[in-house]
């Protein structure tokens, strides 16, 4: 019987995102530069929404927070308001440039950036940034096959607790249509690994209902072999279009799982 960590490796190897790097041999930075509408997607999808509010309730004021895979700052920017410092870790310099621009626009001065993958962030090179970190957060950003070391490093670095955000529930039917009916990563794989590591994990769920412009949906599925007409026909057949605003929008429903571990000293 395969253990939870090996199950993670198996399911990760089947994921579209992971295979894209393997097959296309591109970099994280180039991938996100080619997906420049990502920040628009975040805005339209009402993310992070309620899960951010819940995390904000669980952390102490003036905390030092590490945001692993910070992206364009969905969590970092919001958490910086009540944190002493936020350490935004991301392998894409393009994403961190977006974070910098937002910081400048909003007069935020307590976000420190590290342009690297989490596995390459170490206490020797980044001593000042990591020292006295209270919490570590990874939201939809774990694509490391060595999941146990990834999580252990989070747990060892953060003195008060760690937060993981990942998808819960079935894959969207449009995703299955576009990429085929295959297994996909959800929070349960992560949960089993964390429990096998002896972590006392709390789990909560948060739903999001939102609409995306059809033009944005086409960009989301740009790597699918389905044509625009095939995607449009599928959405029409499944009554996923909403034209109430005068524009073609597609309805979506997602569930975010929040897995967190709070240490006794928190």
Summarize the SSE layout with pairings:
Blueprint: H1 4-14, H2 16-24, H3 28-34, H4 38-44, H5 50-58, E1 64-68, H6 76-79, E2 85-90, H7 93-106, E3 111-115, H8 127-130, E4 135-139, H9 147-157, E5 161-168, H10 173-179, H11 187-196, E6 202-213, H12 214-220, H13 228-237, E7 241-242, E8 249-262
Parallel strand pairs: 1-2, 1-4, 2-3, 4-5
Antiparallel strand pairs: 5-8, 6-8, 7-8
Can you describe what's shown?
The protein has 266 residues and is of the alpha/beta class. The chain has helices at residues 4-14, 16-24, 28-34, 38-44, 50-58, 76-79, 93-106, 127-130, 147-157, 173-179, 187-196, 214-220, 228-237, and strands at 64-68, 85-90, 111-115, 135-139, 161-168, 202-213, 241-242, 249-262. Strands 1, 2, 3, 4, 5, 6, 7 and 8 form an eight-stranded mixed sheet that branches. Helix 1 packs antiparallel against helix 11. The longest helix has 14 residues, at 93-106. The mean pLDDT is 92.
The CATH architecture is: 3-Layer(aba) Sandwich
Name of the top-level CATH class: Alpha Beta
CATH superfamily: Vaccinia Virus protein VP39
The count of strands amounts to 8
The residue ranges in which pLDDT falls below 50 over 5 or more consecutive positions are none
N-to-C series of helices and strands = HHHHHEHEHEHEHEHHEHHEE
- The tally of structural domains comes to 1
Helical stretch tally: 13
End-to-end Cα distance, whole Å, is 37 Å
Instruction: Characterize the largest beta sheet: strand count, sense, and whether it forms a barrel.
Output: 8 strands, mixed
């Amino acid at each position: 019987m395969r253990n939870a960590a090996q199950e993670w490796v198996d399911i990760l190897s089947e994921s579209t995102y992971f295979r894209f790097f393997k097959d296309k041999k591109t970099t994280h930075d180039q991938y996100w530069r080619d997906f420049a509408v990502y920040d628009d997607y975040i805005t339209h999808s009402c993310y992070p929404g309620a899960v951010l509010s819940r995390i904000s309730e669980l952390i102490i004021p003036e905390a030092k927070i590490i945001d692993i895979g910070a992206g364009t700052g969905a969590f970092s920017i919001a958490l910086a308001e009540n944190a002493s410092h936020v350490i935004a870790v991301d392998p894409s310099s393009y994403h961190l440039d977006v974070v910098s621009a937002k910081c400048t626009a909003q007069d935020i001065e307590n976000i420190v950036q590290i342009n690297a993958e989490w596995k390459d962030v170490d206490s020797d090179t980044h001593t000042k940034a990591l020292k006295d970190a209270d919490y570590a957060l990874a939201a939809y950003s774990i694509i490391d096959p060595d999941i146990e070391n990834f999580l252990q490093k989070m747990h060892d670095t953060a003195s008060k607790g760690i937060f993981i955000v990942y998808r819960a529930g079935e894959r969207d039917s449009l995703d299955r249509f576009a990429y085929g009916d295959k297994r996909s990563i959800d929070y349960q794989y992560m949960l089993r690994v964390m429990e096998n590591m002896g972590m006392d994990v709390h789990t909560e769920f948060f739903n999001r209902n939102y609409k995306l412009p059809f033009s944005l949906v086409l960009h989301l599925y740009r790597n699918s072999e389905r044509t625009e007409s095939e995607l449009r026909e599928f959405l029409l057949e499944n009554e996923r279009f909403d034209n109430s605003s005068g524009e073609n929008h597609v309805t979506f429903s997602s569930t975010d799982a929040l897995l967190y571990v709070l240490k006794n000293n928190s």
